[in-house]
Write a structure and sequence with these properties.
Elements: E1 5-10, H1 11-15, H2 24-37, E2 42-47, H3 51-54, H4 59-69, E3 73-74, H5 82-96, E4 100-104, E5 113-120, E6 123-133, H6 139-142
Parallel strand pairs: 1-2, 1-4, 2-3
Antiparallel strand pairs: 5-6
Protein backbone atom coordinates (compact mmCIF):
# COMPACT_ATOMS: atom_id res chain seq x y z
CA UNK A 1 0.00 0.00 0.00
CA UNK A 2 2.95 2.38 0.48
CA UNK A 3 3.10 3.03 -3.25
CA UNK A 4 -0.56 4.03 -3.46
CA UNK A 5 -1.19 7.74 -3.95
CA UNK A 6 -3.71 9.57 -1.82
CA UNK A 7 -4.75 12.77 -3.60
CA UNK A 8 -6.38 15.44 -1.46
CA UNK A 9 -8.19 18.06 -3.53
CA UNK A 10 -9.19 21.50 -2.26
CA UNK A 11 -12.65 21.79 -3.87
CA UNK A 12 -12.72 25.58 -3.67
CA UNK A 13 -9.38 25.96 -5.39
CA UNK A 14 -10.36 23.71 -8.30
CA UNK A 15 -13.89 25.11 -8.62
CA UNK A 16 -12.48 28.64 -8.69
CA UNK A 17 -9.36 27.93 -10.79
CA UNK A 18 -8.89 31.01 -12.99
CA UNK A 19 -12.54 32.05 -12.63
CA UNK A 20 -14.24 35.10 -11.12
CA UNK A 21 -16.63 32.80 -9.26
CA UNK A 22 -16.36 29.07 -8.54
CA UNK A 23 -18.10 26.48 -10.70
CA UNK A 24 -19.20 23.06 -9.55
CA UNK A 25 -19.20 21.94 -13.19
CA UNK A 26 -15.53 22.88 -13.45
CA UNK A 27 -14.75 20.91 -10.27
CA UNK A 28 -16.57 17.86 -11.62
CA UNK A 29 -14.84 18.06 -15.00
CA UNK A 30 -11.41 18.37 -13.38
CA UNK A 31 -12.10 15.37 -11.13
CA UNK A 32 -13.12 13.23 -14.13
CA UNK A 33 -9.73 14.05 -15.69
CA UNK A 34 -7.97 13.22 -12.40
CA UNK A 35 -9.63 9.79 -12.24
CA UNK A 36 -8.76 9.09 -15.90
CA UNK A 37 -5.12 10.14 -15.50
CA UNK A 38 -4.57 8.39 -12.17
CA UNK A 39 -7.15 5.57 -11.86
CA UNK A 40 -5.11 3.86 -9.16
CA UNK A 41 -5.10 6.89 -6.84
CA UNK A 42 -7.36 7.30 -3.86
CA UNK A 43 -9.02 10.72 -4.09
CA UNK A 44 -10.60 12.79 -1.33
CA UNK A 45 -12.22 16.13 -2.11
CA UNK A 46 -12.24 18.55 0.81
CA UNK A 47 -14.19 21.81 0.90
CA UNK A 48 -14.54 24.78 3.15
CA UNK A 49 -18.23 24.83 4.08
CA UNK A 50 -18.48 28.41 2.83
CA UNK A 51 -17.97 27.15 -0.74
CA UNK A 52 -21.70 26.43 -0.90
CA UNK A 53 -22.45 30.15 -0.57
CA UNK A 54 -19.78 31.13 -3.10
CA UNK A 55 -21.34 28.95 -5.80
CA UNK A 56 -24.16 30.12 -8.03
CA UNK A 57 -27.74 29.44 -6.91
CA UNK A 58 -28.09 26.54 -9.36
CA UNK A 59 -24.95 24.83 -7.96
CA UNK A 60 -25.93 25.05 -4.28
CA UNK A 61 -28.26 22.00 -4.24
CA UNK A 62 -25.81 20.05 -6.41
CA UNK A 63 -23.05 20.79 -3.90
CA UNK A 64 -25.31 19.56 -1.09
CA UNK A 65 -25.87 16.38 -3.12
CA UNK A 66 -22.10 15.90 -3.44
CA UNK A 67 -21.74 16.26 0.35
CA UNK A 68 -24.60 13.84 1.05
CA UNK A 69 -23.15 11.31 -1.42
CA UNK A 70 -19.73 11.59 0.22
CA UNK A 71 -18.09 12.91 -2.96
CA UNK A 72 -17.08 16.06 -1.07
CA UNK A 73 -16.18 16.31 2.61
CA UNK A 74 -16.55 19.67 4.31
CA UNK A 75 -14.13 20.63 7.05
CA UNK A 76 -16.15 20.58 10.25
CA UNK A 77 -17.18 23.87 11.82
CA UNK A 78 -14.67 24.85 14.46
CA UNK A 79 -11.90 22.67 13.01
CA UNK A 80 -8.52 23.63 14.44
CA UNK A 81 -6.97 26.07 11.92
CA UNK A 82 -10.05 25.73 9.69
CA UNK A 83 -9.95 23.99 6.34
CA UNK A 84 -6.16 24.41 6.10
CA UNK A 85 -5.68 22.57 9.38
CA UNK A 86 -8.18 19.91 8.33
CA UNK A 87 -6.30 19.33 5.05
CA UNK A 88 -2.96 19.22 6.87
CA UNK A 89 -4.21 16.65 9.38
CA UNK A 90 -5.76 14.55 6.59
CA UNK A 91 -2.39 14.56 4.79
CA UNK A 92 -0.59 13.56 7.99
CA UNK A 93 -3.06 10.74 8.60
CA UNK A 94 -2.70 9.50 5.01
CA UNK A 95 1.09 9.46 5.36
CA UNK A 96 0.82 7.65 8.68
CA UNK A 97 -1.39 5.05 6.97
CA UNK A 98 1.38 4.46 4.40
CA UNK A 99 0.13 6.49 1.43
CA UNK A 100 2.09 8.85 -0.78
CA UNK A 101 0.03 11.99 -0.16
CA UNK A 102 -0.24 14.80 -2.71
CA UNK A 103 -2.43 17.83 -1.99
CA UNK A 104 -3.83 20.20 -4.61
CA UNK A 105 -4.56 23.56 -3.00
CA UNK A 106 -3.66 27.22 -3.33
CA UNK A 107 -2.92 27.48 0.37
CA UNK A 108 0.42 27.15 2.13
CA UNK A 109 0.61 23.82 3.95
CA UNK A 110 3.75 23.09 5.90
CA UNK A 111 5.39 19.71 5.37
CA UNK A 112 2.86 18.55 2.77
CA UNK A 113 3.63 17.60 -0.84
CA UNK A 114 1.73 20.01 -3.08
CA UNK A 115 0.88 18.88 -6.60
CA UNK A 116 0.63 21.06 -9.68
CA UNK A 117 -2.66 21.49 -11.54
CA UNK A 118 -2.93 22.96 -15.03
CA UNK A 119 -5.65 23.36 -17.59
CA UNK A 120 -4.50 23.19 -21.19
CA UNK A 121 -7.28 23.86 -23.68
CA UNK A 122 -9.93 22.24 -21.49
CA UNK A 123 -7.77 19.28 -20.44
CA UNK A 124 -6.97 19.19 -16.74
CA UNK A 125 -3.46 17.93 -15.98
CA UNK A 126 -2.83 16.62 -12.48
CA UNK A 127 0.90 16.31 -11.79
CA UNK A 128 1.50 13.96 -8.87
CA UNK A 129 5.26 13.76 -9.42
CA UNK A 130 6.58 17.34 -9.59
CA UNK A 131 5.53 18.29 -6.07
CA UNK A 132 6.80 21.02 -3.79
CA UNK A 133 6.91 20.92 -0.01
CA UNK A 134 7.02 23.99 2.20
CA UNK A 135 9.18 24.03 5.30
CA UNK A 136 7.57 24.93 8.62
CA UNK A 137 9.98 27.90 8.81
CA UNK A 138 8.86 29.22 5.41
CA UNK A 139 7.05 32.58 5.81
CA UNK A 140 4.42 31.48 3.27
CA UNK A 141 3.68 28.40 5.38
CA UNK A 142 3.25 30.62 8.42
CA UNK A 143 0.18 32.16 6.77
CA UNK A 144 -1.42 28.74 6.42
CA UNK A 145 -4.07 29.52 9.01
CA UNK A 146 -5.28 32.58 7.11
CA UNK A 147 -8.46 31.70 5.21
CA UNK A 148 -8.74 32.86 1.61
CA UNK A 149 -12.33 33.31 0.56
CA UNK A 150 -13.99 34.78 -2.45
CA UNK A 151 -17.05 36.85 -1.77
CA UNK A 152 -19.89 37.29 -4.15
CA UNK A 153 -22.70 39.74 -3.91
CA UNK A 154 -26.17 38.28 -4.28
Amino acid sequence: MADRNLVLVDAGMVAGFRRASPSLGQLHQALVHLHRQHPEALVAVVADPSLKWDLGKADEPLFEGDVIAGAVVCAPAGALDGTVGFLTRAAERGSKDGHNVVVFTDRALSGVALGRLRNESGRWLWDLDATTTRDADDPAAASAGQPRRRRRSR
